# Entry
Amino acid sequence: MSTTVILPVVYRYIRLSIEPAVTEPLALRKLLENAMSQSFGVSRAATYMDVLWISADGHAAVIRVSDSDAEAVLASVVVLEKPIRLSVTKHSAFLPMLLSNAESWLHQDTSAITSTRNQ
# Structure
């Protein structure tokens, strides 16, 4: 008999779109800190965030935050008042989901099922 174990969600991974480009992790971290301060005050500005990846052109990034802080970070990104515009592309508790294109995967999966049924 097998037992299914569900692991607790500890982190949330957020993929951001950045316009104009930001290529330095510290600059992005400072933007996020300013957004948190602007939205929730100085105490939330110290929220722990990891910048995991910034694209070579600086127009996309992935950050990691604790699951309990994720909603605040998502909300603060939306209302950031700076010349740099951040927007959330995707967010998930499972990092590889940020790399996938769910729509194309679903289309391929559905096409495979349809073609199998037609044979």
